[in-house]
Write a structure and sequence with these properties.
Radius of gyration of chain A: 14 Å
Strand content of chain B: over 45%
Order of helices and strands of chain A: EEEEEEEEEEE
Radius of gyration of chain B: 14 Å
Largest sheet of chain B: 6 strands, mixed
Largest interface: A-B, 24 and 22 residues
Order of helices and strands of chain B: EEEEEEEEEEE
Helix content of chain A: under 10%
Shape of chain A: globular
Number of strands of chain B: 11
Number of helices of chain B: 0
Largest sheet of chain A: 7 strands, mixed
Oligomer: heterodimer
Structural class of chain B: mainly beta
Distance between the termini of chain B: 41 Å
Chain lengths: 116, 113
């Protein structure tokens, strides 16, 4: 089975430009998570969805960030306008909690974003 | 919010040696997870722990869920060069249907052949 798919793997853009990151979760998984990883702050949860509905977006840094999940197999994270401090690796993860127990999240390979 | 302290931050060990790393939390968790991340890749789940006191192995890896529910450790026995990477602990308190993970800052492991 294919794992979580993210695109692009690398993105270099200039400050002020719009950036869109894409994620395809593992088929059948009903939770989708967006994380940001930096050296200083480690892995930070930005937002997560359950059955395509945003559940908690308290980690989204500011209004320049937005995320959507129009269907069970696709999600986007958009930054508009981008700033140099947004440079980081962005991960998408998905999971399928069963029996109300564990949330074993499976991560994609990440998108390395560089904003010049 | 919940905070995880993971130690050590980095380790340099000789091939064949055993490794131990741990995480402590300021609050209790229902689940502890251990991930490994290699350069240019996303974290990969190694072991999941669901009950206080639980001891689980996955090959040369052994992890335990602390009895207080505020800590966990990961041991790697007889390390090999491919063990190199960053190991993350993650805790989850799935109360009220929330499945948010809190991650430690990671332990960077280097293995000297």
């Amino acid at each position: 089975d294919a794992g979580v798919i993210q695109s692009p793997r690398h993105e270099v853009t200039e400050m002020g430009q719009e950036v869109t990151l894409r994620c395809k979760p593992i088929s059948g998984h009903d939770y989708l998570f967006w994380y940001r990883q930096t050296m200083m702050r480690g892995l930070e949860l930005l937002i997560y969805f359950n059955n395509n509905v945003p559940i908690d977006d308290s980690g989204m840094p500011e209004d320049r960030f937005s995320a959507k999940m129009p269907n069970a197999s696709f999600s986007t994270l958009k930054i508009q306008p981008s700033e140099p401090r947004d440079s980081a690796v962005y991960f998408c993860a998905s999971s399928f909690p069963s029996g109300g127990m564990v949330n074993e999240q499976f991560f994609g390979p990440g998108t390395r974003l560089t904003v010049l | 919010g919940q905070q995880l302290n993971q130690s050590p931050q980095s380790m340099f060990i000789q091939e064949g040696e055993d490794v131990s790393m741990n995480c402590t939390s300021s609050s209790i968790f229902n689940t502890w997870l251990w991930y490994k991340q290699e350069p240019g890749e996303g974290p990969v789940l190694l072991i999941a722990l669901y009950k206080a006191g639980e001891l689980t192995s996955n090959g040369r890896l052994t992890a335990q869920f602390g009895i207080t529910r505020k800590d966990s450790f990961l041991n790697i026995s007889a390390s090999i060069p491919s063990d190199v990477g960053i190991y993350f602990c993650a805790g989850q308190y799935s109360g009220a249907g929330s499945y948010q993970l809190t991650f430690g800052k990671g332990t960077k492991l280097s293995v000297i052949p």
